[in-house]
Amino acid sequence: MYKENHISRIRRFPNWLKRKNKRANPSQPFEVSEGNEKHESDDWLDDVLFPCISTNELRLFVGTWNVAGKSPMGSLAVDLEEWLNLKDAADIYVLGFQEIVPLNTRTVIGAEDPTEATNWNLLIGKALNDKYGCPWLTPMLNPISSDNYLYVPVPDSERRLSVSSNIAGTPMKERSKTQHERLKEGSKYKLMASKKMVGVFTSVWMKKELLRKYCISNVKVSSVACGIMGYLGNKGAVSVSMSIEGTSFCFITAHLASGEKKGDEGRRNHQVSEIFRRTSFPRSPDDDDNPHPLTIFGHDRIFWFGDLNYRLYLEDNFARSLIKSKDWRALQEFDQLRREQENGGVFQGWKEGNIEFAPTYKYSNSNSNRYSGGLPNGSGEKQRTPAWVKLA
Protein backbone atom coordinates (compact mmCIF):
# COMPACT_ATOMS: atom_id res chain seq x y z
CA MET A 1 0.00 0.00 0.00
CA TYR A 2 1.25 3.46 -0.85
CA LYS A 3 0.27 7.01 0.12
CA GLU A 4 1.64 10.35 -1.02
CA ASN A 5 1.37 13.62 0.88
CA HIS A 6 2.20 16.98 -0.73
CA ILE A 7 1.29 19.64 1.84
CA SER A 8 3.71 18.47 4.54
CA ARG A 9 6.63 18.71 2.14
CA ILE A 10 5.62 22.21 1.03
CA ARG A 11 5.42 23.41 4.63
CA ARG A 12 8.90 22.10 5.46
CA PHE A 13 10.58 23.29 2.28
CA PRO A 14 11.78 26.80 3.35
CA ASN A 15 13.58 25.51 6.45
CA TRP A 16 15.08 22.60 4.52
CA LEU A 17 16.33 24.93 1.77
CA LYS A 18 17.87 27.28 4.34
CA ARG A 19 19.57 24.38 6.11
CA LYS A 20 20.90 22.86 2.89
CA ASN A 21 22.34 26.20 1.77
CA LYS A 22 23.96 26.70 5.17
CA ARG A 23 25.79 23.36 4.83
CA ALA A 24 26.96 24.23 1.33
CA ASN A 25 28.01 27.82 2.22
CA PRO A 26 28.45 28.09 6.00
CA SER A 27 29.91 31.62 5.80
CA GLN A 28 27.07 33.08 3.73
CA PRO A 29 23.76 33.91 5.39
CA PHE A 30 20.60 32.70 3.73
CA GLU A 31 17.22 34.12 4.54
CA VAL A 32 13.68 33.19 3.63
CA SER A 33 11.62 36.33 3.22
CA GLU A 34 8.53 36.93 5.28
CA GLY A 35 6.43 36.58 2.16
CA ASN A 36 7.31 32.90 2.11
CA GLU A 37 5.09 32.38 5.11
CA LYS A 38 2.22 32.36 2.62
CA HIS A 39 3.62 29.15 1.28
CA GLU A 40 0.29 27.60 0.39
CA SER A 41 -0.55 30.32 -2.14
CA ASP A 42 -0.21 29.71 -5.87
CA ASP A 43 2.10 32.74 -6.26
CA TRP A 44 4.56 31.40 -3.69
CA LEU A 45 4.56 27.97 -5.33
CA ASP A 46 5.12 29.39 -8.82
CA ASP A 47 7.61 32.13 -7.95
CA VAL A 48 9.64 30.63 -5.11
CA LEU A 49 9.15 26.92 -4.61
CA PHE A 50 9.10 25.31 -8.05
CA PRO A 51 12.18 27.12 -9.45
CA CYS A 52 14.18 25.71 -6.54
CA ILE A 53 13.10 22.11 -7.07
CA SER A 54 14.98 19.60 -9.17
CA THR A 55 13.60 16.12 -9.74
CA ASN A 56 15.69 13.07 -8.96
CA GLU A 57 14.49 9.61 -9.94
CA LEU A 58 15.34 6.70 -7.67
CA ARG A 59 14.46 3.05 -8.17
CA LEU A 60 12.92 1.60 -5.04
CA PHE A 61 12.40 -2.10 -4.31
CA VAL A 62 9.85 -2.74 -1.55
CA GLY A 63 9.18 -6.40 -0.77
CA THR A 64 7.70 -8.60 1.94
CA TRP A 65 8.31 -12.24 2.86
CA ASN A 66 6.88 -14.45 5.58
CA VAL A 67 9.66 -17.00 6.09
CA ALA A 68 7.65 -19.16 8.54
CA GLY A 69 10.34 -19.32 11.21
CA LYS A 70 13.05 -20.68 8.90
CA SER A 71 16.67 -19.66 9.41
CA PRO A 72 18.41 -17.77 6.57
CA MET A 73 20.43 -20.58 5.08
CA GLY A 74 20.34 -23.26 2.40
CA SER A 75 17.65 -22.82 -0.24
CA LEU A 76 16.49 -19.53 1.28
CA ALA A 77 19.76 -17.93 0.16
CA VAL A 78 19.03 -18.90 -3.45
CA ASP A 79 15.42 -17.74 -3.13
CA LEU A 80 16.58 -14.39 -1.73
CA GLU A 81 18.85 -13.62 -4.67
CA GLU A 82 16.07 -14.46 -7.11
CA TRP A 83 13.60 -12.33 -5.16
CA LEU A 84 15.90 -9.27 -5.13
CA ASN A 85 16.10 -9.35 -8.95
CA LEU A 86 19.73 -8.23 -8.95
CA LYS A 87 20.00 -8.31 -12.74
CA ASP A 88 17.79 -5.22 -12.70
CA ALA A 89 19.03 -3.79 -9.40
CA ALA A 90 17.25 -0.99 -7.53
CA ASP A 91 18.84 2.03 -5.87
CA ILE A 92 17.17 1.31 -2.53
CA TYR A 93 16.01 -2.02 -1.12
CA VAL A 94 13.39 -2.00 1.63
CA LEU A 95 12.79 -5.56 2.80
CA GLY A 96 10.12 -6.63 5.25
CA PHE A 97 10.00 -10.06 6.87
CA GLN A 98 7.54 -11.82 9.14
CA GLU A 99 8.15 -14.82 11.40
CA ILE A 100 11.93 -14.75 11.24
CA VAL A 101 11.62 -16.67 14.51
CA PRO A 102 8.96 -19.26 15.41
CA LEU A 103 6.09 -17.57 17.24
CA ASN A 104 5.99 -19.34 20.60
CA THR A 105 5.91 -18.40 24.28
CA ARG A 106 9.70 -18.10 24.53
CA THR A 107 10.12 -15.79 21.54
CA VAL A 108 7.03 -13.67 22.19
CA ILE A 109 7.42 -13.10 25.95
CA GLY A 110 11.17 -13.63 26.39
CA ALA A 111 13.98 -11.15 25.86
CA GLU A 112 14.61 -9.96 22.33
CA ASP A 113 17.33 -11.98 20.59
CA PRO A 114 19.05 -10.13 17.71
CA THR A 115 20.70 -13.28 16.32
CA GLU A 116 18.22 -14.03 13.54
CA ALA A 117 18.07 -10.38 12.47
CA THR A 118 21.85 -10.30 12.25
CA ASN A 119 21.87 -13.54 10.26
CA TRP A 120 19.32 -12.16 7.82
CA ASN A 121 21.32 -8.97 7.37
CA LEU A 122 24.41 -11.05 6.70
CA LEU A 123 22.56 -12.99 4.02
CA ILE A 124 21.04 -9.88 2.45
CA GLY A 125 24.39 -8.10 2.47
CA LYS A 126 26.07 -11.08 0.83
CA ALA A 127 23.39 -11.23 -1.87
CA LEU A 128 23.67 -7.51 -2.64
CA ASN A 129 27.45 -7.22 -2.31
CA ASP A 130 28.84 -10.64 -3.15
CA LYS A 131 31.22 -9.19 -5.73
CA TYR A 132 32.30 -6.29 -3.56
CA GLY A 133 33.67 -7.78 -0.35
CA CYS A 134 31.91 -7.06 2.95
CA PRO A 135 32.84 -3.70 4.54
CA TRP A 136 29.08 -3.23 5.03
CA LEU A 137 29.58 -5.46 8.10
CA THR A 138 31.27 -2.62 10.01
CA PRO A 139 28.11 -1.09 11.53
CA MET A 140 26.92 -4.55 12.54
CA LEU A 141 30.09 -5.19 14.48
CA ASN A 142 30.11 -1.74 16.08
CA PRO A 143 26.50 -0.54 16.12
CA ILE A 144 26.87 2.20 18.75
CA SER A 145 29.83 4.04 17.29
CA SER A 146 29.02 7.67 16.47
CA ASP A 147 31.33 7.34 13.48
CA ASN A 148 28.92 4.89 11.87
CA TYR A 149 25.82 6.51 10.45
CA LEU A 150 24.53 3.11 9.39
CA TYR A 151 22.86 0.91 11.90
CA VAL A 152 21.62 -2.62 12.56
CA PRO A 153 20.15 -3.72 15.89
CA VAL A 154 17.99 -1.54 18.12
CA PRO A 155 17.24 -3.54 21.29
CA ASP A 156 13.76 -3.23 22.77
CA SER A 157 13.98 -2.29 26.43
CA GLU A 158 10.30 -2.99 26.90
CA ARG A 159 8.58 -5.72 24.88
CA ARG A 160 5.00 -4.77 25.73
CA LEU A 161 5.16 -1.15 24.59
CA SER A 162 5.86 0.72 21.40
CA VAL A 163 9.52 1.56 20.92
CA SER A 164 11.10 4.30 18.84
CA SER A 165 14.76 5.05 18.28
CA ASN A 166 16.76 7.84 16.71
CA ILE A 167 19.40 6.08 14.64
CA ALA A 168 21.27 9.12 13.42
CA GLY A 169 20.86 12.86 13.65
CA THR A 170 23.75 13.89 11.43
CA PRO A 171 23.08 14.14 7.68
CA MET A 172 25.31 12.01 5.49
CA LYS A 173 26.77 15.01 3.67
CA GLU A 174 28.26 16.32 6.92
CA ARG A 175 30.68 13.42 7.07
CA SER A 176 34.39 14.14 6.79
CA LYS A 177 36.39 13.67 3.61
CA THR A 178 38.04 10.58 5.08
CA GLN A 179 34.65 8.99 5.66
CA HIS A 180 33.57 9.74 2.08
CA GLU A 181 36.77 8.14 0.81
CA ARG A 182 36.00 5.01 2.79
CA LEU A 183 32.57 4.85 1.15
CA LYS A 184 34.19 4.69 -2.29
CA GLU A 185 35.78 1.35 -1.52
CA GLY A 186 34.33 -2.11 -1.13
CA SER A 187 30.64 -2.89 -1.23
CA LYS A 188 28.02 -1.45 -3.53
CA TYR A 189 25.17 -1.24 -0.99
CA LYS A 190 25.18 0.02 2.58
CA LEU A 191 22.83 -0.96 5.38
CA MET A 192 20.85 2.15 6.37
CA ALA A 193 18.55 0.80 9.07
CA SER A 194 17.31 -2.44 10.55
CA LYS A 195 14.72 -3.20 13.20
CA LYS A 196 13.33 -6.40 14.73
CA MET A 197 10.30 -6.96 16.98
CA VAL A 198 9.84 -10.67 17.78
CA GLY A 199 9.31 -12.08 14.25
CA VAL A 200 8.67 -8.81 12.38
CA PHE A 201 11.84 -7.48 10.80
CA THR A 202 12.79 -4.79 8.31
CA SER A 203 16.10 -4.07 6.60
CA VAL A 204 16.86 -1.02 4.42
CA TRP A 205 19.82 -0.88 2.03
CA MET A 206 20.98 1.92 -0.26
CA LYS A 207 23.56 2.27 -3.01
CA LYS A 208 26.68 3.97 -1.72
CA GLU A 209 26.73 6.40 -4.61
CA LEU A 210 23.45 7.86 -3.32
CA LEU A 211 25.08 8.56 0.03
CA ARG A 212 27.69 10.69 -1.73
CA LYS A 213 25.23 12.37 -4.07
CA TYR A 214 22.27 13.15 -1.81
CA CYS A 215 21.62 14.38 1.70
CA ILE A 216 20.29 11.38 3.64
CA SER A 217 19.17 12.35 7.14
CA ASN A 218 16.88 11.63 10.08
CA VAL A 219 17.03 7.85 9.87
CA LYS A 220 14.80 6.61 12.69
CA VAL A 221 12.92 3.45 13.65
CA SER A 222 9.79 2.65 15.63
CA SER A 223 7.84 -0.47 16.61
CA VAL A 224 4.28 -1.11 17.73
CA ALA A 225 3.22 -4.41 19.31
CA CYS A 226 -0.50 -5.17 19.05
CA GLY A 227 -0.72 -8.97 19.29
CA ILE A 228 -1.87 -10.94 22.33
CA MET A 229 -3.83 -8.70 24.74
CA GLY A 230 -3.21 -5.89 22.28
CA TYR A 231 0.38 -5.32 23.41
CA LEU A 232 2.56 -8.36 22.68
CA GLY A 233 4.86 -8.49 19.68
CA ASN A 234 3.61 -11.61 17.93
CA LYS A 235 1.65 -9.16 15.78
CA GLY A 236 2.33 -5.52 15.02
CA ALA A 237 4.67 -3.41 12.90
CA VAL A 238 8.17 -1.99 12.66
CA SER A 239 8.71 1.27 10.80
CA VAL A 240 11.66 3.14 9.31
CA SER A 241 11.65 6.89 8.68
CA MET A 242 14.24 8.81 6.66
CA SER A 243 14.66 11.92 4.54
CA ILE A 244 16.28 12.00 1.11
CA GLU A 245 17.03 15.53 -0.11
CA GLY A 246 14.24 16.92 2.04
CA THR A 247 11.60 14.39 0.99
CA SER A 248 10.53 12.23 3.92
CA PHE A 249 9.85 8.51 3.53
CA CYS A 250 8.14 6.09 5.90
CA PHE A 251 8.25 2.31 5.46
CA ILE A 252 5.95 0.16 7.60
CA THR A 253 6.35 -3.62 7.77
CA ALA A 254 3.34 -5.24 9.44
CA HIS A 255 2.10 -8.66 10.53
CA LEU A 256 -1.63 -8.56 11.30
CA ALA A 257 -4.05 -10.98 12.96
CA SER A 258 -4.82 -14.20 11.10
CA GLY A 259 -8.16 -15.96 10.75
CA GLU A 260 -10.91 -16.61 8.21
CA LYS A 261 -13.90 -16.31 10.56
CA LYS A 262 -16.48 -13.57 10.15
CA GLY A 263 -15.27 -10.51 12.02
CA ASP A 264 -11.55 -11.33 11.77
CA GLU A 265 -11.20 -8.56 9.19
CA GLY A 266 -12.36 -6.14 11.89
CA ARG A 267 -9.47 -7.22 14.12
CA ARG A 268 -7.05 -6.53 11.32
CA ASN A 269 -8.60 -3.12 10.66
CA HIS A 270 -8.26 -2.27 14.35
CA GLN A 271 -4.60 -3.27 14.39
CA VAL A 272 -3.93 -1.02 11.40
CA SER A 273 -5.53 1.92 13.20
CA GLU A 274 -3.50 1.14 16.34
CA ILE A 275 -0.27 1.09 14.35
CA PHE A 276 -1.15 4.46 12.83
CA ARG A 277 -2.03 5.87 16.25
CA ARG A 278 0.90 4.54 18.26
CA THR A 279 3.81 4.77 15.81
CA SER A 280 6.03 7.72 16.69
CA PHE A 281 9.55 8.76 15.80
CA PRO A 282 11.79 10.62 18.27
CA ARG A 283 12.91 14.18 17.82
CA SER A 284 16.50 14.87 16.85
CA PRO A 285 18.66 17.96 17.56
CA ASP A 286 18.15 19.08 13.95
CA ASP A 287 14.36 19.11 14.13
CA ASP A 288 14.20 22.77 15.19
CA ASP A 289 15.73 23.88 11.89
CA ASN A 290 14.30 21.13 9.71
CA PRO A 291 11.25 19.56 11.36
CA HIS A 292 11.06 15.87 10.61
CA PRO A 293 7.77 13.93 10.75
CA LEU A 294 7.08 12.32 14.11
CA THR A 295 4.09 10.27 12.91
CA ILE A 296 3.35 8.09 9.90
CA PHE A 297 0.99 10.54 8.22
CA GLY A 298 3.48 13.40 8.50
CA HIS A 299 5.66 11.88 5.77
CA ASP A 300 5.69 12.73 2.07
CA ARG A 301 5.88 9.14 0.85
CA ILE A 302 4.47 6.24 2.86
CA PHE A 303 4.77 2.52 2.06
CA TRP A 304 2.89 -0.15 4.03
CA PHE A 305 3.71 -3.80 3.33
CA GLY A 306 3.78 -7.16 5.06
CA ASP A 307 1.66 -10.16 5.96
CA LEU A 308 -1.65 -8.35 6.33
CA ASN A 309 -3.65 -11.59 6.49
CA TYR A 310 -6.71 -10.29 4.61
CA ARG A 311 -8.47 -13.19 2.86
CA LEU A 312 -10.92 -13.83 0.01
CA TYR A 313 -14.70 -13.67 0.38
CA LEU A 314 -14.93 -16.83 -1.69
CA GLU A 315 -15.39 -20.54 -1.15
CA ASP A 316 -12.28 -22.66 -1.48
CA ASN A 317 -13.25 -24.57 -4.63
CA PHE A 318 -14.20 -21.41 -6.54
CA ALA A 319 -10.98 -19.70 -5.46
CA ARG A 320 -8.86 -22.60 -6.67
CA SER A 321 -10.75 -22.68 -9.97
CA LEU A 322 -10.02 -19.01 -10.67
CA ILE A 323 -6.38 -19.53 -9.69
CA LYS A 324 -6.12 -22.45 -12.10
CA SER A 325 -7.42 -20.26 -14.93
CA LYS A 326 -5.14 -17.38 -13.80
CA ASP A 327 -8.08 -14.99 -13.72
CA TRP A 328 -6.53 -12.55 -11.26
CA ARG A 329 -8.98 -9.75 -12.05
CA ALA A 330 -12.01 -11.88 -11.21
CA LEU A 331 -10.30 -13.13 -8.06
CA GLN A 332 -9.58 -9.59 -6.88
CA GLU A 333 -13.30 -8.80 -6.89
CA PHE A 334 -13.51 -10.98 -3.77
CA ASP A 335 -10.40 -9.63 -2.09
CA GLN A 336 -11.16 -8.75 1.53
CA LEU A 337 -8.70 -5.87 1.73
CA ARG A 338 -10.14 -4.26 -1.38
CA ARG A 339 -13.67 -4.60 0.00
CA GLU A 340 -12.62 -3.08 3.32
CA GLN A 341 -11.00 -0.15 1.51
CA GLU A 342 -14.10 0.46 -0.60
CA ASN A 343 -16.29 0.38 2.51
CA GLY A 344 -14.05 2.83 4.35
CA GLY A 345 -12.90 0.32 6.95
CA VAL A 346 -9.17 0.69 6.38
CA PHE A 347 -6.51 2.43 4.21
CA GLN A 348 -8.78 5.14 2.85
CA GLY A 349 -7.03 7.12 0.11
CA TRP A 350 -4.20 4.61 -0.26
CA LYS A 351 -3.08 3.04 -3.53
CA GLU A 352 -2.32 -0.63 -3.98
CA GLY A 353 0.17 -1.94 -6.52
CA ASN A 354 -0.96 -4.04 -9.47
CA ILE A 355 -1.63 -7.67 -8.60
CA GLU A 356 -0.57 -9.81 -11.52
CA PHE A 357 0.45 -12.95 -9.68
CA ALA A 358 -1.16 -15.89 -7.92
CA PRO A 359 -2.28 -15.66 -4.29
CA THR A 360 0.67 -16.07 -1.94
CA TYR A 361 -1.23 -17.83 0.88
CA LYS A 362 -0.94 -20.59 1.88
CA TYR A 363 1.50 -23.02 0.34
CA SER A 364 2.00 -26.53 1.66
CA ASN A 365 5.07 -27.08 3.83
CA SER A 366 5.93 -30.14 1.76
CA ASN A 367 5.73 -28.46 -1.64
CA SER A 368 6.03 -24.72 -2.12
CA ASN A 369 4.23 -24.96 -5.48
CA ARG A 370 1.04 -26.45 -4.00
CA TYR A 371 -1.52 -24.68 -1.86
CA SER A 372 -2.24 -26.10 1.57
CA GLY A 373 -5.37 -28.23 1.75
CA GLY A 374 -5.17 -29.70 -1.72
CA LEU A 375 -4.69 -33.26 -0.48
CA PRO A 376 -7.51 -35.81 -0.03
CA ASN A 377 -9.46 -35.87 3.23
CA GLY A 378 -7.63 -37.67 6.00
CA SER A 379 -4.22 -36.34 5.04
CA GLY A 380 -4.10 -34.23 8.21
CA GLU A 381 -3.34 -31.05 6.30
CA LYS A 382 -5.49 -28.04 7.20
CA GLN A 383 -7.79 -26.67 4.53
CA ARG A 384 -6.82 -23.09 3.71
CA THR A 385 -8.51 -20.98 1.07
CA PRO A 386 -5.77 -19.27 -1.00
CA ALA A 387 -5.55 -15.48 -0.68
CA TRP A 388 -3.29 -12.46 -1.18
CA VAL A 389 -2.37 -11.86 2.43
CA LYS A 390 1.10 -10.43 1.80
CA LEU A 391 0.99 -7.15 -0.06
CA ALA A 392 3.34 -4.25 -0.70
TrEMBL record:
Any one GO MF annotation of this record: phosphatidylinositol-3,4,5-trisphosphate 5-phosphatase activity
Q: Inositol polyphosphate-related phosphatase domain spans which residues?
A: 56-392
Q: Which UniProt keywords apply?
A: Hydrolase
GO biological process, alphabetically ordered: phosphatidylinositol dephosphorylation
* Residue ranges of the region described as Disordered: 369-392
Per the record, the similarity remark reads: Belongs to the inositol polyphosphate 5-phosphatase family.
Q: Would you tell me the protein name for this molecule?
A: Type IV inositol polyphosphate 5-phosphatase 7 isoform X2
Species, as recorded:
Ziziphus jujuba
